[in-house]
Amino acid sequence: MTNNILKFLFLLTIIHFTTIVKAQIDSDQQDKDAQYIKQIHNNILTEGMCYDWLTELTTDVGARLAGSEGSVKGVQFMEDLMNTLGFDKVWKQECKVNYWDRGDIEEVYLTYPKIQKLNALSLGNMIGTNGQLLEADILEVTSLDEVETLGNELVKGKIVFYNRPMDPTQIRTFNAYGGAVDQRVYGASKAAEYGAVAVLVRSMTTRQDDIPHTGTSVYAEGIKQIPAISISTNDANLLSDLLKKEKVRVSIRNNAKPMGERVSHSVIGEIKGSEFPNEIILVGGHLDSWDVGAGAHDDGAGCVHSLQVIKTLLDMGYQPKHTIRCVMFQNEENGLAGGREYARISNENGEYHLAALESDSGGFVPRGFSFDGHAEVLKPFYRHVSQWLPLLESYGLQFSTGGSGADISPLKSQKGLLIGLRPDSQRYFDYHHTDIDRIEAVNKRELELGAAAMTSLIYLIDKYGLK
Amino acid sequence: MTNNILKFLFLLTIIHFTTIVKAQIDSDQQDKDAQYIKQIHNNILTEGMCYDWLTELTTDVGARLAGSEGSVKGVQFMEDLMNTLGFDKVWKQECKVNYWDRGDIEEVYLTYPKIQKLNALSLGNMIGTNGQLLEADILEVTSLDEVETLGNELVKGKIVFYNRPMDPTQIRTFNAYGGAVDQRVYGASKAAEYGAVAVLVRSMTTRQDDIPHTGTSVYAEGIKQIPAISISTNDANLLSDLLKKEKVRVSIRNNAKPMGERVSHSVIGEIKGSEFPNEIILVGGHLDSWDVGAGAHDDGAGCVHSLQVIKTLLDMGYQPKHTIRCVMFQNEENGLAGGREYARISNENGEYHLAALESDSGGFVPRGFSFDGHAEVLKPFYRHVSQWLPLLESYGLQFSTGGSGADISPLKSQKGLLIGLRPDSQRYFDYHHTDIDRIEAVNKRELELGAAAMTSLIYLIDKYGLK
Predict the structure, then answer these.
(1) Whether B427 and A449 lie within 8 Å, measured CB to CB
(2) CATH number of the domain at A34-100+260-464, please?
(3) ipTM computed for the complex
(4) d(CA B454, CA A218)
(5) CATH number belonging to domain B32-100+260-464
(6) Domain A103-255 class, CATH top level
(7) What are phi and psi of A85, to 5 degrees?
């Protein structure tokens, strides 16, 4: 054999040997990580506190619309609770929210061809009728575009009734929501543009039931503000069926109104990182909720998920390398003031969020994570995912690209990784923004598994970084 | 170039070309199958009848313990319904079941150190106290082995209290059930062997609540028969806490009893296969339930899942190549008479079941299928799975080895493929064998997605076979 061939074989042997050793280390490390992740799950499934905290938050505090008395109680509750959990530091971060009040009158009646009370909820941020009766003929449409097409002549003086259902064939219900919610958010101004006196909106759910769903709505600048009210899907079907035969009239009486700016707060807890104190890993949800129900799935679940991540890591004696910050954002539902203010101050302070993980899709069984970010963070992340996926898929978890969370989205400019917990979505819109979003709608094990999934991912990101 | 090299290159080109053509066909076929499976989902999520059928079965008929009046109504309901669905043939198959009656007295009281009524349910197939008061000291154990270890001296005259909880750290709750249910099934005879006068069994659930869970229990031959009653997990914890401090006494009064053999029926519908009429693909669940609640998840869900498979395939104009048989088995809960008799008659008639798919794990969101069978059917099935998985995993479905279903397990000797639907298991044991297993516990979309998953798999098996 020539010298070159010998050299080549020697080199080959070294490379081979190195590969084996590396594979061995990787495999040992994988085993250790698998054990750690099992311990995380065991800890939460046997000693998890998230369900108890959520019970307290939803029953002792209840609804927490930003700026309301409930939200003040919520902030206090959260600060007190976080002060017991072993954070290095807990603080409130001020933000200015636009408070909206539903008022004490909220009535929608079908008045012709028969009289029947409808199940209705005024939409967030919208004005009401000042307690006066407003009666008009109904005009059913299935899109904003249809209002334009019908034009002034047909729309003027009518109550426009947006009745395009969420598409039940979407397997992920958030996609169905995304495909229908423009009616609720922009429907009032579009109808007002053509002279409508009010709008009714079919509730955002695939269920057929009597439960109305509220939610945010916005007025376009320079357009007349008119009342906007959601009705239950059963009542929407009733109106639609009647309209196939004859004209239908409805009367509205409510006194909802925007109440102007108030001071509110996000609540933040922090554990300083031992190696990379200037690289922040954020985990959070939003503390505010709508003013009906108790914000159990939306988003009490995300708050207690995030607290459980911290409690479990500390219980297990885990020392984070990166700074871990737990943020209970204020005002996600009708303004995003907390999320915007958090990002503004963070940018002002020159901070860098390596990763931010939000839970704002309910306390259902976790199916995985969706992630988003700039190319420079995504490329190495894909490599990590190939290592981490085998550790997580035995818990039914997958990774997919997609949105992360509204509150953390203003952090995107810091070019870190943005992640959303993806719980199973089938039941989410049964409860979303309704009076029945209460603790009874939350299953303890499903909630706990969501917290365990989040804790596992935060552990992996903190341990391995994202480079 | 030599002739040989030319030949070689020519051959290479052919192989390559064939591979490309084959891949193209496969890819076209995959696209068509993906579209068909999407249509199946669309059909069921928009026009599915399974939830309506389950509502009728659980409210008009209600509980359906084999041999009870309810089960007679259930058989009639099912035969009538199946006669409307377009089967070539619907028939009842007789089986002999051992009917058990809960009786009209069922009381368990803590009598010392304080008096408190406990939430209790007599266990299936067990005798009661004949309406007489039976009072004794409690002896807590966590296993059948512990009864043996404690022996006659400590066990004699006592009420043995089996209190080993289901392991909450099992991610799949069926594994936790499997690890605890020996106490309920065999606990009475084991305790009687050492002179116990009765047994109490901690309910089979990971929840902490006041709801007792019944279930089957069996007496060993030649051992004295004693009463056996389940108590809620909250009450089990209460007894256990009290026992840490002092002796605890409990009184039992019930009049449950085995009532002897009765004639009952499974209900079967069949569509003859166009190409392989002698190869049967079975889809089924069990029609009987326990005598409390309404058997919504267990196993009304499995029955309506199976009917929906047939309805959807027929609605879509699908012509099955194999004979498709839909079987509503009788008496899964406390005897398996229907499943055994079905297999006996099938074997007697020289039938061959290519595949059998049972749904008996609830109407929750489907996570995939588990499968079982002899090596000669599993080997080609693995190859098919590699083709089918990409079609199903976008619906969150996976394949795993494991059990299939109790009713179809007697068919194993026919050497076909046995498959079980695997819905998410987190909430199953909240309802299993309880008074709250009613339609309110079932989510329409989750139920429908289970039916769509089953229809998709039956379609693939029928279209491609299992060779």
Answers:
(1) no
(2) 3.40.630.10
(3) 0.93
(4) 43
(5) 3.40.630.10
(6) alpha beta
(7) -95, -5
